Amino acid sequence: MVGFKATDVPPTATVKFLGAGTATCIADLITFPLDTAKVRLQIQGERQGPVQAVASAQYRGVLGTILTMVRTEGPRSLYKGLVAGLQRQMSFASIRIGLYDSVKQFYTKGSEHAGIGSHLLAGSTTGALAVAVAQPTDVVKVRFQAHAQAGGGRRYQSTIEAYKTIAREEGFRGLWKGVTSPNVARNAVVNCAELVTYDLIKDTLLKANLMTGSCPPFSDWVPGTW
């Protein structure tokens, strides 16, 4: 763009969209075993009474759950559903984070001075839209994570087969199980709490000249070029 340095050109909506998805995919690769352990702990004893569930608990604590899964199902069990998990991040995070600025500009009609109402509307919109779009990937991810395979067969042979099987056996709406008004509202509120709070704090710091709106050129960080 004429009149702009390379570091002054603002990222496009596509760059923000892909950047948000890529960053969360990298984070998911690192934290996925913790998410799998969380799912196993959540569903443990779901078909038993509270007393029987406590007495027959197979998993105890996050670390205990991870160690038990590695011992009984192998280390790869910690990454069951990873493909669907990465698909979820590319759709869910890309929308709720990557499109936040674009939606905010839509509500403010391009004005640089966005009120808190515009921030809240943008956060609510991208949060609700993200969960509505990405729910099938979350359903498949949790199905893989919840399935214990200690000596048993695999429930689904692949991620694509899982989508097809759920749609065939439970109907197309089976892929959107869990998309209820409370769930959509929850994600809208959570997105507001995360992104709007960040955005408002950043704007406050910029107005107080406590930070700049962009990073210095990469060469400034390379030894020998200071």
From TrEMBL:
Database matches in InterPro entries: MCP, MCP_dom_sf, MCP_transmembrane, Mito_Metabolite_Transporter
GO CC entries: membrane
The keyword Magnesium is annotated on this UniProt entry: no
Repeat region (Solcar), residues: 11-106, 114-204
Biological processes, Gene Ontology terms: transmembrane transport
Membrane topology: Multi-pass membrane protein
Main localisation: membrane
PROSITE patterns for the chain: SOLCAR
Pfam name, any one: Mito_carr
Sequence similarity: Belongs to the mitochondrial carrier (TC 2.A.29) family.
Record's protein name: Uncoupling protein 2
Species this chain originates from: Monodon monoceros
